[in-house]
Amino acid sequence: DGFHLADAELDRLGRRDRKGAPDTFDAAGYAALLGRLREEDGDGIVYAPGFERVLEQPLAGAVPVPPSARLVVTEGNYLLLGTGAWQRVRSRLDEVWFCGLTEAERIRRLVARHERFGKSPEQARAWALGTDQANADLVAASGHRADLVVPAEVLGG
């Protein structure tokens, strides 16, 4: 989530009401970071951004990746999208696993997370069934591109 655009930029672009959609991330920056991690010559730490849930904002330079790191695990909803800069992200990953959840469990988890970070139950459910649902549909449609699909039963939902 460290590659979310800041709320100020989302406001400028008129996209804040869709925060979490593919075009509300700096996918090109994410691809560049992944490329840098693959090509790093071992001379120093590479810093990746983090995400502060309480603020709902990205934090630059929050995750140090030392040159000794031999395995880097990253996650994201759009790793398998075949459009825009997301294609460059996928080309810099050795494997992408798709983790499936039932719709009911996905919605339950999203609503709980939105409530945990300040939305009312009504706001949380509306966001999960609106913006989040549109994003989930995109993610599900790209699942066939995964190297491995982890079924819902394995994930407890």
Brief summary of the model shown:
The chain is of the alpha+beta class and 157 residues long. It has helices spanning 7-13, 27-39, 86-91, 103-116, 121-129, 131-142; strands at 46-52, 57-65, 97-99, 148-150. It folds into two domains: 1-94, Rossmann fold, CATH 3.40.50; 97-157, no CATH class.
Task: Describe the 3D structure.
There is one protein chain. By secondary structure, this protein is of the alpha+beta class. 39% of the residues lie in helices and 14% in strands. The protein contains six helices and four strands, in the order H-H-E-E-H-E-H-H-H-E. The chain has helices at 7-13, 27-39, 86-91, 103-116, 121-129, 131-142; strands spanning 46-52, 57-65, 97-99, 148-150. A two-stranded antiparallel sheet has the order 1-2.
Q: H/E series, N to C?
A: HHEEHEHHHE
What would the CATH topology of the largest domain be? Rossmann fold
Unreliable residue runs: none
Question: Rg from C-alpha positions?
Answer: 16 Å
- How many domain units? 2
Describe the sheet with the most strands. Answer: 2 strands, antiparallel
Number of strands: 4
Ends apart, CA distance between termini: 23 Å
The CATH superfamily of the largest domain is known as P-loop containing nucleotide triphosphate hydrolases
What is the strand arrangement across the widest sheet?
1-2
Principal-axes geometry comes out as globular
